[in-house]
Amino acid sequence: xxxxxxxxxxxxxxxxxxxxxxxxxxxxxxxxxxxxxxxxxxxxxxxxxxxxxxxxxxxxxxxxxxxxxxxxxxxxxxxxxxxxxxxxxxxxxxxxxxxxxxxxxxxxxxxxxxxxxxxxxxxxxxxxxxxxxxxxxxxxxxxxxxxxxxxxxxxxxxxxxxxxxxxxxxxxxxxxxxxxxxxxxxxxxxxxxxxxxxxxxxxxxxxxxxxxxxxxxxxxxxxxxxxxxxxxxxxxxxxxxxxxxxxxxxxxxxxxxxxxxxxxxxxxxxxxxxxxxxxxxxxxxxxxxxxxxxxxxxxxxxxxxxxxxxxxxxxxxxxxxxxxxxx
Length: 327
Prior knowledge:
mainly beta; 5 helices; 2 domains; three-stranded antiparallel sheet; Arc Repressor Mutant, subunit A
């Protein structure tokens, strides 16, 4: 792959993008974003991204500037468009309509995550829709949104009782919590010798509008034991989320940070950083037929910055809340 074979590979430009004057960075997860990595594996496509950093061009212009056939330019542009790396729109030209393209990002960071299991191990994994919470206590501003539109009424906590909540792909509130019950499949699989529990979800702070420096202390509880606090750095709206639907206004929260919580025999970690001494034994997994996961912002938090939980169809990662029980 040549120029993109290092862990962190960056494309810089001399001028700001056409879409926004704020820096735009895409964090690529090597375990999930294969389509993006494949798009970047071509030297021609990388050169196109470099070319579009400070200007918008149509396919013919791209071909001429890079001295490549127009068919190659068109194929490469299509691949970049499908991977969400460029924006394009139609415009009138001398010979009719034409596709005009611009780069979405000025910088890419490729993050290589370690394997979640040792060789020979097999995890029990359950993915829970963000709207399928079984208990809640939230304070407005709050709301639920599916891939098709707002569910119920904005800033009305009673909407969280609606059966339509199961359709939610984005959940947000200022204070309070939502709680999910995952099945404890270790009781029926014959594998109760757990080594660790992992929880993966995309989250951000929440503020009317957005603010990338709006801190929020987000707590997670498992089986009613608080396992730790993660401070979200902000509520992000500098660009559209990779999976965020077109109807969602750019003024709203667009994407979050994919966090991985791990509880093992040594404590609790968020993205490898230890956040508490709570161990897997403290959770008493084998004593319960379900595993309760509560996510929220406490009234006593130092940074009362709200919470967005992104599910499938919203944000940068096409996933809901994933629980893994690892032998």
